[in-house]
Amino acid sequence: MSYLSRENAPIDSELWEKIDSEVVTAARAALTGRKFLHIYGPLGIGADSIRVDDSQSVDEAEADGLITTKGRKYVQLPTIFDDFTLLAKDLESDRKTGYPADLSAASYSSETCARKEDRLIFFGSEANGYEGLLTAPGIHKIKRSDWGAEENAFTDLVSGLEWFASNSIYGTYALIVSPDLFMKLQRIQPGTGLLEIERISKLFKGNVFSSPVLGTQKAVLVCSEPRYMDLVIGQDLATAYLEQKDLNHRFRILETVLPRIKRKEAVVAFE
Fold this sequence. Notes:
The protein is of the alpha+beta class. The protein contains six helices and 16 strands. The protein has helices at 13-30, 88-97, 104-123, 152-166, 179-184, 196-203; strands spanning 39-40, 49-53, 59-63, 66-70, 72-76, 79-86, 140-142, 173-177, 188-189, 194-195, 208-210, 219-223, 229-233, 238-245, 248-261, 267-270. A hairpin with a 4-residue loop joins strand 9 and strand 10. This is Type 1 encapsulin shell protein. Keywords: Encapsulin nanocompartment.
């Protein structure tokens, strides 16, 4: 029996293909972290944990006749999931009439998983000991000015780039902002004839993203080179069959995923 238990589902391969397509399409539209983080994997569902190195201090050390690796820890890949139900009566009616199945429930569930993944990337999970881009100890923090006035946003972001340069952090930069700050950047910058977002987008070669999981008044600037950070994927987003309950069919969308921050200096949070 496979891990996803699909062989136990009394539905045909054509419907599975439609569910898979719906889930992937909805997730791609909702995910933000995967737009700038490099993907390590997928490693498969059997990947239970992954090593997380401090890129500046990882090294072998000998003591008492034993060699161990310092600056390294092994972290479990958590499972992100959400469940949905398809009504058996609806599926039977669609089969008989030839109407396409309404898979809105699968789409909503996929979007929920996407938001959970992004929350893990940005905020981690304090209860489970996971670090996020905005919560990891050791990241650089800059007091944010009023991004709705003058050149404050541009000036703050240049300060972030100066921080990277002073710490020899070079590569691809990406800015991620909460929706309210993103809207503040949709204004003409005096004396330039350009929207503020246009100036900033050119500064980061188009790598500017907005994510609703950030809430409000939050922004983070990263150098997303894989030597500094990445996103580990064990089981990529997939749909499993859970059970038939009250004649209806219950499914679970799941993935195992972990953001790795290998160098904290590659993250600048604006508070």
